[in-house]
Amino acid sequence: MEGDQLEALDFSSEGLHAEVTMVVTGEPPGAVEEELDNEEEEETSVEVIDSLSLLDVLRVSTIMEDIIDQLSILGYIIPVQYERRQSLSQKTSHERTSMASSTRKSSVPLSAKEKSTGPEIKQRGQDFILKTPTRQTMMTLETLKKIQNDRQYFSDVIANAMKEMQDSGSFRSLLETLGKERDNRINFHDVITREEKGRRQIKSLQKQLVDVKKERQMQVQNGNEYIAHLKDQLQEMKAKTNLENLYMKRNTELQISQTQKKCNRAEELLLEEIEKLRMKTEEENRVHMEIEMFLRKEQQVSLPAI
């Protein structure tokens, strides 16, 4: 009888399951698509919540229970540390114990079966960890922790939604959680977009910095070449100035020497001229004295005769 009821509710359950899968695994919508999806989701959620019957609640609860079971099994399969796996299994078993008290009677054998197979699955997970150490090296501890956190979060969301559905026949908490996740994903994509934009700006700035460095290097190189050229010109000017100074010095020395020679020659000529004039003066004085003596003699001779 239960199988017939589940087959009769197959259409509605598949629709609900497709809705959940689409929201969880779909691509992040844009701003306009997000608003339209929010409006459609609100209308759809109101219609679904108002139209849920007891059979729908049982069907969805069964699906959610199956999801929780699969997530619990996945927690045993994933190779993580034993303490982490033990705490997660205790938390999951506690949640399952609290949920099993409020579910229908058909869920009791399923949970009992899972409890009976729990140690076996746990042992198989441990054997899997011991037998395949190479697979652990392929995944980092951070990745495994993230997978476990996501799995536990999804399990908590499904458990809360199932509890709410069993209590009030609605799953508003699931829709609210999906909305929050959608907003978080949009914010995450916005952060990624801003980060990519920042990276592009950083690359552009780095390229500009490289161009500026190259330009500065070219300017420095040109400046160094110009300084070297000026140094060469300065050396040439110094060498030319030294040659000119040496030439002027030698020329001045030569001119001084020639002038000195000329002065010495003129001095010698003047001395010779002075000597000639002195000798001539002495000759004139001697002649004058002789004439004077002659005239005196003549005068003395002429006086007695008178």
Which series of helices and strands comes N to C? HHHHHHHHH
Oligomer type? single chain
Classification by helices and strands: mainly alpha
Q: What is the CA-CA span between the terminal residues?
A: 214 Å
Brief account:
It is built from 9 helices and no strands.
Structure report:
Residues 1-36, 41-51, 80-86, 102-118 and 128-133 have low confidence and may be disordered. By secondary structure, the chain is mostly helical. Helix content is 92%, strand content 0%. The radius of gyration is 62 Å and the shape is rod-shaped. It has a domain at 2-170. Helix 4 (54-77) runs parallel beside helix 6, helix 5 (82-100) packs antiparallel against helix 6 (107-131) and helix 5 (82-100) packs parallel to helix 8 (141-168).
How are the secondary structure elements laid out?
Elements: H1 2-8, H2 10-25, H3 31-51, H4 54-77, H5 82-100, H6 107-131, H7 133-138, H8 141-168, H9 172-305
What descriptive keywords fit this protein?
single chain; 306 residues; mainly alpha; 92% helix; disordered N terminus
